[in-house]
Design goal:
The complex is a heterodimer of chains A (about 260) and B (about 425). Chain A is an alpha/beta fold. Chain A contains 8 helices and 15 strands. The relative contact order of chain B is 0.11. Classes of the chains: A alpha/beta (about 260), B alpha/beta (about 425).
């Protein structure tokens, strides 16, 4: 059974502005966010059949809910993120502590680079892709490729609305890629076209509703609600979409995928 | 030249990152050379490219560097060149840097300085205040000289292809006797004409009027086979017409040339009669003896003793002559330098301004000249023996053209291109 690391939104809120979605004046409703988060967890556990590991939330770290940015995990080895913004750098020690306490081998990146975990590093079995220019540095992928012995193709992200790779790029279990080309420069678009045969293009309106920030487990795809065209595309490719209301998390620039980290 | 080298490492090929970085450099009006590239054999391994980025100004270079660093290019960390003191006269410190014949810079106090008088197999002497770097031969090193050691803080530039589209810009390393020579010779003639015009313009109107890159002198390096094979008259014509400005030779070329003037023979062989003259083998010795008596070649010509030929033309046209002696020389002629280190020094002193080197029918002088020519000087090596042009072409310069042919035929064809009436 697939396992996901999550963190309850007890202290979630918009306390600073580090992406164009965040406005301190546009506060998240605590009750509504908790309800949306619990509904997402219920979908994972009951509809998709996923096992959840819950981190302890920390007061003063509103973005700790976005566990996708904890680090990258593969083959039992975890590389903890090095956040670009000081506001999120304080999360690093809590993520590191969780992995150490759960007997993962925690390794250092070994280079002075920013790197924001599985938010920016995604892939298929053979080839991984790394988003750079917004949050993570190019150099992180050279180091990670050596650590994991994987091909990592860096992709330049050109829009601050799509500041992490997982906001515009979602590899599916059947080898298809759900993505929004407008988030990438032309070289990255060519690289994606050359590397991935089956591509599902998300329309801009739904990409801006985080349609690509989806979690795919087997044939299930959990995605934010309001992305009907994307759901139709997924169905046409044999997937079962599970829409979940996640508007409160849009306010921080995140959605289903950002709220999880695959542990296996 | 404003240049920095960056390293790009990772999965840079399939991700088109290398293409993007190179495109970025060009779009920003910089240029680049890929000095090293290692493309991984497997998908997992990284590829590495070292890219030297050139820009017209330090500001533009900085802008380009900032742009490419975002795509992972790492600027090489560079330190000043290391140096050590020469322990005694004529002895270099251990681990001295041995130069190539390519344009070279060393870094002193954070600044890149051009190495002056570059040639292959020399050391580099630096002075710090003001910063200055110069290539010097081992024998000229003085105790206490500051000599560049190791490999850091030194950079060597590949040659830029000449802008002129001629034989020198399309040179292939191959030397063959089975290729047509005509177009190469026509290009050599064209370049000689350009240098002559450039020289005259600079002499008349000053440095600013000419093109310093083109050079103001043609260097001719010749062996005695030119005289034996009947090339004497045509070479004299080229000199008289002002196409040759520096002559390197040994003892034999001038000896046989003047022998022809005095006796009409070359090594005793009647040049026009086509048979051995009685006691002809003595002619060159008698020639050398007469010139020694005159005191110098110049005096022999000016006194009217030597009336025609290569030496007479050289004296009349004020050609800068360096005659380097060898162990088997007869005489030698009074102008011949018998100390090899002094000969090298005299050759070097004559090189500034040379924009074309013609090396004809001489093995040892051609190679000695090749060794002290900077790679940027186009050179032509003509010999009936393919080994000589091959050896010269192997020096690693695409501006070294080799022609396997008879020296006199070469000179005649060359002169005809320059409107020789003969």
């Amino acid at each position: 059974m697939a396992r996901l690391l999550v963190c309850p939104p007890d202290y979630y809120g918009i306390e600073y502005e580090i992406n164009p979605w965040m406005r301190v004046s546009n506060a998240a409703d605590p009750e509504k966010s908790k309800a949306q988060w619990h509904n997402l967890m219920r979908t994972f556990e009951e509809d998709v059949g996923v096992e959840l590991e819950r981190m302890t939330p920390v007061k003063g770290l509103p973005d700790l809910v976005f566990t996708a940015n904890a680090g990258v995990l593969y083959d039992g080895k975890v590389v903890i993120s090095r956040f670009l913004h000081p506001e999120r750098q304080r999360e690093e020690e809590y993520f590191e502590r969780w992995f150490t306490e759960h007997d993962y081998s925690v390794i250092k990146l070994g280079v002075e680079c920013y790197f924001e975990g599985a938010g920016d590093l995604l892939g298929f079995t053979d080839t991984w892709f790394g988003g750079y220019r917004q949050r993570s540095d190019f150099g992180a992928y050279t180091a990670l490729s050596e650590i994991y012995g994987k091909e990592i193709l860096p992709l330049e992200l050109v829009s601050d609305k799509f500041y992490h790779l997982d906001t515009c790029f979602c590899p599916l279990s059947g080898g298809e890629l759900l993505y929004y080309p407008g988030a990438f420069d032309s070289y990255a678009q060519d690289t994606i076209a050359n590397s991935v045969e089956k591509r599902i293009i998300v329309p801009q309106v739904e990409a801006e509703r985080f349609a690509c920030n989806a979690v795919c487990v087997d044939h299930h795809v959990v995605l934010p609600s309001g992305c009907n065209e994307t759901m139709d595309l997924l169905k046409r490719h044999g997937y079962t979409p599970h829409p979940v209301e996640l508007d409160e998390f849009f306010k921080a620039g995140g959605s289903a995928k950002c709220l999880t980290l695959a542990l296996d | 030249m404003n240049t920095e080298t960056v390293t790009l490492k990772g999965h840079i090929i399939d991700s088109l990152i290398l293409a993007k970085v190179l495109d970025t450099i060009l779009q920003m009006e910089g240029t680049f050379d890929i000095s090293e590239i290692k493309i991984s054999a497997t998908r997992e391994e990284s590829s590495i490219a070292k890219i030297a980025i050139h820009a017209d100004s330090p500001e533009l270079l900085e802008e380009i560097l900032q742009a490419v660093q975002l795509h992972g290019a790492i600027v090489e960390e560079i330190s000043d060149c290391s140096t050590a003191i020469a322990p005694q006269d004529g002895v270099l410190p251990d681990s001295f840097y041995a130069s190539s014949h390519l344009p070279t810079q060393v870094r002193l106090k954070g600044e890149w300085i051009d190495v002056e008088a570059i040639e292959m197999d020399l050391a580099i002497r630096v002075q710090h205040d003001p910063p200055h770097a110069m290539a010097i031969p081992m024998a000229e090193v003085k105790i206490g000289d500051d000599i560049v050691t190791g490999r850091t803080g030194i950079r060597v530039f590949p040659l830029e292809r000449p802008k002129e589209r001629d034989a020198f810009s399309f040179m292939e390393a191959q030397v063959s006797s089975e290729r047509p020579h005509q177009h190469v010779i026509a290009d050599v003639a064209k370049r000689m004409r350009m240098i002559k015009d450039n020289r005259e313009k600079i002499l008349r109107q000053g440095d600013a009027a000419g093109n310093a890159d083109l050079g103001t002198k043609v260097l001719f390096v010749g062996g005695p086979a030119i005289v034996h094979s009947g090339g004497r008259e045509v070479l004299s014509w080229l000199i008289e017409e002002g196409y040759i400005h520096v002559l390197f030779a040994g003892n034999a070329l001038p000896a046989h040339d003047m022998e022809a003037s005095l006796f009409g023979t070359s090594l005793g062989f009647g040049l026009s009669a086509g048979c051995i003259a009685p006691h002809g083998h003595e002619h060159h010795l008698r020639t050398i003896n007469k010139v020694r008596g005159a005191g110098s070649i110049k005096q022999a010509v000016e006194s009217g003793m030597i009336k025609d030929g290569i030496m007479a033309s050289c004296v009349r046209q004020n050609v800068d002559m360096v005659l380097a002696g060898s162990i088997r020389d007869d005489g030698p002629l009074p102008d011949v330098i018998t100390d090899t280190v002094k000969s090298q020094g005299a050759m070097r002193a004559a090189l500034p301004g040379v924009g074309l080197a013609l090396m004809v029918a001489t093995t040892l002088h051609a190679i000695a000249t090749g060794n002290c020519l900077p790679a940027k000087v186009p050179s032509v090596c003509v010999d009936i023996n393919p080994a000589v042009p091959t050896k010269l072409s192997d020096r690693g310069s695409f501006q070294a053209v080799g022609l396997v042919m008879d020296s006199s035929s070469f000179l005649r064809q060359l002169a005809r291109e320059l409107n020789w009436p003969g």
